[in-house]
Fold:
Amino acid sequence: DGPEAAATAARVGLGEGSDTVVQVLKTYNLPSSGRLSLARVWRGTLRDGMSLAGKRVGSINLMQGQSLTKVSSAAPGEIVALGRMDEARTGQLLSSAGENAV
Structure:
């Protein structure tokens, strides 16, 4: 079992805050779903329709193999696939505070 998301976020320098922060781990271009950004939630609760780095999240999905299940939110530590985040790049930190990097 690995460390809690908050402990890892603090170790990499994210610290405390009230904004939601996610990190893009991988980007997929799927024929049926378009571009999906696989991301880990480091801090806060990610909700469908909220903005990260000034861009609206199109959808939040859980991935299991080729299967996608749409969910309305994701908690710290969860890994989800974000739809319609075309400007997001692999490795990038995205914040609900409007910054591209934290």
